[in-house]
Amino acid sequence: MKWVISKSAILLAIFILPVFAGADDDCLNCHRQKTPGAVSQWQGSAHAGAEISCMDCHGSDHNKIETGQAFVDAKTCGKCHQTALEQHEASRHGLGLHSGWGCTRNLPDRNPGECRFCHEEGSTRPLSTVECSRFLTQSSEMRELGCNRCHQVENSCASCHTNHLTDLKIVQNPNVCAKCHMGPDHPQWEMWETSLHGTLYTTAGETIGPDCQRCHMPQGTHNVSTGLTMTPGGAPYSGADRKSQRSAMLKICTDCHAESFARRELERGDGIREQSAALVNEAETIVWDLADRGLLSPMPDNRPPHPLRGKVLVTDGQMLYEGTSHIERLLFKMKKYDFAKTVKGAYHQNPAYTHWYGNAELKMDLIDIKAEAERLKQQKKKNFNASPQASTAEDTIEQQLKVLKKKFERGVLSNEQYSAKKKRLLDQSLQIK
Questions:
Q1: Is this model's pTM higher than 0.90 or not?
Q2: pLDDT digits 0-9 by tens, 235-250
Q3: φ/ψ of residue 286, rounded to 5
Q4: Could you say which DSSP state residue 222 is in?
Q5: Is 4 a residue whose pLDDT tops 50?
Q6: Where along the chain do its domains lie?
Q7: Which residues 6+ apart lie within 8 Å of 253 measured at CB?
Q8: Distance (Å, whole) CA 99 – CA 192
Q9: How far apart are the C-alpha atoms of 192 and 350, rounded to whole Å?
Q10: Peptide bond preceding 298 in cis form (omega within 30 of 0)
Q11: Residue 225 and residue 209: Cα distance in Å, rounded?
């Protein structure tokens, strides 16, 4: 029995020795004590079997490793996984940081280690000029855990694959997507899980029920944007790109469905997107009209400046959910949460998200925004009438001319429209006199 054990040990050593020899002995000897879990995971990985050592990924500068300067980024992985890297960089995952970050150089609690996400080592030239206002308004702790952990997917393969494990079962499980693709602004995972697709997956398995990977990473591609026809904010692609991407999605859908059925369902989603965008645009117009009239409470001049634009109204993709007026908070919910639930719910074949979590909320948001706008106008009128120096009708027209000019200056009115409306008001003023 002792001989059998000894022989087994010798044979085990023979098979393991080449693996250990391919790794740096100093790394293993030390990290067996300091980070035994990481060593164990590496030893059971495909990397160990292929004799990919610690230094192959982490480098040999231990000081940089300890201080977090030797970051194992996507380009490190791309040295071996070139095709996967190219597919990843062509997808929205490859734009994760570009859509979710902002330069922290002027923040008092900045983390110098963050610079590596937007700058090559030793360079001050930014890789991207896109910045995120919401990121810049957060504490350093919230930026790290609440923002970076998702958006670092751009240059961290470990976001999905983990650091040292290589078992594909991890990234083939739709739960790996849920870490980021859930919540009020992009609940794709919840939509899928509670749809018929998700139910079939849970009860009958992946051969019957499609999961995230089957639809968004067909044939194992790392381009997760295949088949998408709109931006993350819901703006449709241009004609050629849209047609090409729709064809790609139809090819995926027809693995299970008739093309006519799949096309019809996707076109229904298109219609819902257009209808939902019209509701949001109506609400946004109301908020801008209030700003033109000086009726937001508080006005941008009387609150903390927007981190990217200053003391101006911002309602586009850089809109904040803090330090603004109540009606802007309602618009943020409408644009960022309920529009996304409606549209993405439709494309993910989830009727409850499309209607009750999405469409119904969108329409009630518009009711709330209209009611708040009317309240602000009535409050302004009440204050105006109570003033001992209440203006005449002529002064009211003067105010209308100022509002009209603001709308023209920001491009809402054409030159012809502005001239016609202005003439009408001036004619009214002459009649009063």
A1: no
A2: 999 999 999 999 999 9
A3: -65, -45
A4: S
A5: no
A6: 10-53, 72-173, 183-388, 391-433
A7: 259, 262, 266
A8: 24
A9: 7
A10: yes
A11: 20
